[in-house]
From TrEMBL:
It comes from Capsicum baccatum (Peruvian pepper). This is Wall-associated receptor kinase C-terminal domain-containing protein. Keywords: ATP-binding, Glycoprotein, Nucleotide-binding. One of its GO terms (molecular function) is ATP binding. Residues 135-202 form the Wall-associated receptor kinase C-terminal domain. Pfam families: WAK_assoc. It comes from the Eukaryota.
Amino acid sequence: MLGNLSFPFYKSSEPDCGLWKVDCDNRLTELEGMMFEILEKYGASMRLKVPILGDLLKNKSCQTFDKDITLPFTPSISYTIDNHLTLFKCNSSDKTLGKVFNSKIHQSYACGSIILYYNTSNKAGDYPVLDYFPFPSSCSVIRLPVPQSSVPTSNNSGLFDQLSDRFKLSWTVSEQCKQCYYQGGMCQTHTATDEFYCHNTNKGNMKVLAAGFYL
């Protein structure tokens, strides 16, 4: 039992009542199209588990790196992942990688047709500033959980042994979204401008807001 859940959460039967869908029967939550198992909730934080990832790590499967726990920042809600590692997932056939990723800064790990570069000097909750790092077009950025008590510091045991399928996620709802919701509106984002707007705030057509539900 995780207790009372209210805004920003919503049940699938009440999609207009929040930002974050929760499946109460199966203790699952969906964020940006990704499903996570809810292990525990405390305040504005949750411990989440990535389904299947544990088995992929145990089997040292390269499909591990098809997973990604990156969540976007929006005008309505922002997320902080407290224990994760940022990896550059690159095509190993790219001959320019050695010029881009400094071996004194980035560790590397080859897996099948890909090679992963990562820098363990960043703190677990930090998102590195990627805008100023010109990584090749053959690379993409992914984030995966690491054990809560530490960040991997060496490549000796292999990358798989340094990752986890669990992480802590915290969130902050923006003040404009809170105000919109409690006035009966829906927090949304303009697709063209990425700016916040409050939909359906006509006081003559106020929505009935759910007080909360239990999981």
